[in-house]
Write a structure and sequence with these properties.
- The protein is α+β, with helices and mostly antiparallel strands.
- The protein has one domain.
- The protein starts with 18 loop residues before the first strand and ends with a strand.
Length: 74
Amino acid sequence: MFGKKKKHLLTARVDTTGKYPVILSSICTGEQVAGFRDKVSRDFTDVMLIRNREDLEEFMEVYGVDEADIKREW
């Protein structure tokens, strides 16, 4: 009950064809959300909340993304 938090596992995968990885960052709160933006319609599909470096590494590992390919938007 009051132990360690269980590691969040991504269960549903997003179709990434025609999309590029993005991290949306809030200027006010600093909250970061990782997801994919459609190249044509510019729609954003959020995948997970990024709280620390480990969350970012998990996102990159699950979706096979390099850190250099991730765009940051505010």
